[in-house]
Amino acid sequence: MQFLSDDYMREATERLAGNEDFSKAISEVGLGLQFTVARDNGDISYYLRIADGSATMALGQLDRADASITSSYDTAASLSKGELNTQTAFMTGKIKVEGDMATLMMNQGVINKWTEALSGMDVAV
Question: Model pTM greater than 0.90?
């Protein structure tokens, strides 16, 4: 399956729903993250929305996101495979973050569980 395709988003959402550690981490969390991935042939926008104990990933724009994260396609792929850690990517300028940094930092554990839950997906980049 192609990274950041509709199929990828569907499978990612299913994996998140079936991951016990992630489900426990989001039980009382409300969080919306908007992502923009820069590519030579056009940017891709997608989001992660966590509310009421469930999570959804989908292509498109999320109204009232808590934070917006921008990266290159290569960086996004490395993050999704678990080859690059989000903190390292931020500290080295590989991702740019705008929005409510306090909410983002408060939910760093959720973000770590999210990347762990998706790191084993078999995708073509």
Answer: yes
